[in-house]
Sequence to fold (225 residues):
Amino acid sequence: MIRQLNKNYFNVKLYMWLSALFFSLFFIFFPQIDIQTSAPFYNGHSFYLKGSLFERFFYNSVKIMLISFTLGSLGIYFYNKIKNKNILGVNGKVMLYIILVLSIAPGLIVNATLKDHWGRARPANIKEFGGHKTFTPAFILSDQKGHSFSSGHTSAAFAFVGFALLSRKRRKFWMSLAISYGVLVSFARLIAGGHFLSDIFTSFFIVWIVTHMLYKIIFKKDSTL
Fold:
């Protein structure tokens, strides 16, 4: 049974496919979980941790981190190209992978397709938390003209999983670090009333699945994670 769960399907472990299915069905059949997990951070007037040092730090860190890692990778790539070096193994194939990782899952799927067109209202904007918009469950198209489903910051933060997969040594350590960062950013969005728990899980699974599939397609080898 454990061997079956660890088998790769499109370079993604079966247990990850099953986890994505389980959480999707869970939020479909029990939509109130989203309200219940956001409620502890609402004090009757507002999401009181919005604007806190923790929330602002991780909210603002995502753009800085992505720009830094992307420009750093580009810098190393051009240096390697000009000097005929192989620092950190950053070559054309690696750069193509990084560009696709950042553009397809967080960019095209989460932000351009889901977030901009799904219409789900954010927690801070629904009636249950002092707003005027109506709560709609995850995976249900909404007419509320919101941008909650799914979480753009979460998808961008978990995109560092793609960078971690490139590591030749201590990959599990870097993967753990990338996932931990994604969790912290996701928590910051949750406590600020920016996203529901289902928005966060959806973005995580989209990034995880797409990133591992891209790794297989471009490098012709399994990610082993």
Summary: The first helix runs from residue 2 to 5. The first strand starts at residue 8 and ends at 9. Strands lie at 8-9, 12-13. The radius of gyration is 19 Å.
